[in-house]
Amino acid sequence: MSTIPFSSYKSGYVSLVGAGPGDPDLLTIKALRCITHCDVVVYDRLVSTEITQLIPDGVERIYVGKAKGKHSVPQSETNQLLIELARQGKHVCRLKGGDAFVFGRGGEELLQLHQAGIHADVVPGITAASGCTTYAGIPLTHRGLSQGATFVTAHAEKELSINWQALASLNHTLVFYMGLSKVGVISQSLCQHGLSRQTPVAIIENGCTPKQRVFIADLDTIEKTIQGQGVKSPALIVVGEVVTLAAELNWFIAQAQSQLEKLSA
Ligand code: SAH
Questions:
Q1: 207 part of a folded domain
Q2: Nearest alpha-carbon partner for 50 in 67, 65, 35
Q3: What is the SS3 string spanning 194-251?
Q4: Is 66 among the catalytic positions?
Q5: Are residues 182 and 230 both part of a single domain?
Q6: Residue 66: domain span
Q7: What is the per-residue pLDDT for 123?
Q8: Is residue 19 classed exposed, middle or buried when 0-12, 13-18 and 19+ CB atoms within 10 A define those classes?
Q9: Does 102 sit in the ligand 1 pocket, CB within 6 Å?
């Protein structure tokens, strides 16, 4: 039983909900309850089809993500849409991939809602760094290999302003979001600031979905691997010794294979 009922607001309101990295079973109970009990779901590209299929027929759905060959709806328009829907008295579920507060612009949306006097709450989701590494058999921390993990976005409006010196000296797991197009800069900068070219790297594409692909490389070969394998977004880049555990701990693919074998037996 939840301690915080969604319906405590009398007027319209917005729930900023993290949908997790793809597998619908990774939704929180609170997220699922919001999706099935709200009036309208406003979602973007990273919300998987398996999850949008959980939106009941009677609930309105509005897509604000990037359409093929087009730009996504500008953030200011999405903010305005949320405000207008709430002012119509609706309970709006603003559904985002992963966690809304991790590289998800959830903070910006919440600020705008507060400024407009709209009630809002936030439902945390499993962020890609956690979900995708787990489904790739890579513990973010591991005794003897990594005492911590740092999440970094490789996306920037203009130039990247990352403190590479600090990152390279951490000696623990680094997880890069939105790093595909910047992989050359990432590997070169980390090596220039002291990491070995043989530092293990994993690339996880479409993590936590049936389309998940995991490639293991090192800082020297990662760019070629991404090009050679035609890796596409969404993909996560994981740098650090914990990546070596994937060969042994890779439970997700192993499970899928044994299920397939059972089906074909
Ligand atoms: N708020 C989201 C992150 C949004 S930024 C979260 O908490 O997870 C978008 C980036 O997240 C993508 O470019 C990719 O680097 C990463 N990402 C999100 N979902 C992913 C998935 N299923 N597989 C691999 N990477 C993913």
A1: yes
A2: 35
A3: CCCCCCEEEEEECCCCCCCEEEEEECCCHHHHHHHHCCCCCEEEEECHHHHHHHHHCH
A4: yes
A5: yes
A6: 6-126
A7: 98
A8: buried
A9: yes
Find the 29 Cα to ligand 1 centroid distance in Å.
21
Within this chain, do residues 216 and 140 fall inside the same structural domain, yes or no?
yes
Q: What percent of the chain has pLDDT over 70?
A: 90
Q: Is 68's pLDDT higher than 70? A: no
| Ligand 1 atom with the shortest distance to the CA of 101 | 1
Neighbours of 54 (CB within 10 A): 15
What confidence tens digit (pLDDT) does each residue in 153-191 have?
988 767 778 999 999 999 999 999 999 999 999 999 999
**10 counts as catalytic:** no
* Cβ(127) – ligand 1 distance below 6 Å: yes
Q: What is the mean pLDDT of residues 205-220?
A: 96
Q: Confidence band (pLDDT; 50, 70, 90) for 67? A: low
Residue (of 238, 228, 221, 126) closest to 179 by Cα position = 238
Q: Which of 126, 145, 167 is where one domain is finished?
A: 126
Residue 150: the pLDDT is 98
Q: How many domains does the chain have?
A: 2
Q: How far is the CA of 127 from the centre of ligand 1 (A)?
A: 7
Express each pLDDT in 96-144 by its tens digit: 999 999 999 999 999 999 999 999 999 999 999 999 999 999 999 999 9
- CATH at 171: 3.30.950.10
Residue 60 and residue 168 in one domain: no
Q: How far is the CA of 18 from the centre of ligand 1 (A)?
A: 12
The preferred substitution site among 186, 236, 252 for testing ligand 1, maximizing ligand atoms within 8 Å of CB, is 236
